[in-house]
């Protein structure tokens, strides 16, 4: 069984948000077109308390129950089977969807006999990277959909370097056009 994991397509990571990926919203139509190709669609949300230690490293973003933490308004969120909240404690960064505290992503994937996990969303060089590396370490056949991710690129080239690192770890890079139903 294959599943799609949509990482952090939230207002604060899109243009106009508190920690915007410059062209973050470009992934939204690509992901919306991908969703019908999957029976199982999961998503993660960054969901921080306002006093998170994470905000020593980053501008405050995706505080739980705020507008910034909501999905991008154009994302086909009604088609998402389950949302996993991460970074929910004030002491963790929660980069990886596998660190979610609202439910155990690995357990849910195994219960659904998922062996192939396709990862899309934001941002290539942080939460997509951490989630894909965790997935491959846990033994899932892991794909990153390269046209459905976007990078922060704090340093130019960070996104490309992250893709290379993931590939070296065994993650496969795929274009959304090459994914069949
Ligand atoms: Zn965060």
Which percent range describes the beta-strand content? 15-25%
What is the CA-based Rg, rounded? 15 Å
Stretches where pLDDT falls below 50 for ≥5 residues? Answer: none
Question: How would you sum up the global shape?
Answer: globular
Counted beta strands? 6
- Ligands (ions, cofactors included): zinc ion
Q: How many DSSP helices?
A: 4
> Structural class, from helix and strand content?
alpha/beta
The main β sheet shows up as:
6 strands, parallel
How is the largest sheet built, in terms of strand order?
3-2-1-4-5-6
Q: CA-to-CA gap between the ends? A: 12 Å
Give me the secondary-structure topology.
Elements: E1 2-7, H1 27-34, E2 40-46, E3 82-86, H2 105-111, E4 116-122, H3 124-137, E5 141-150, H4 158-168, E6 172-174
Helix pairs in contact: 3-4
The chain binds zinc ion.
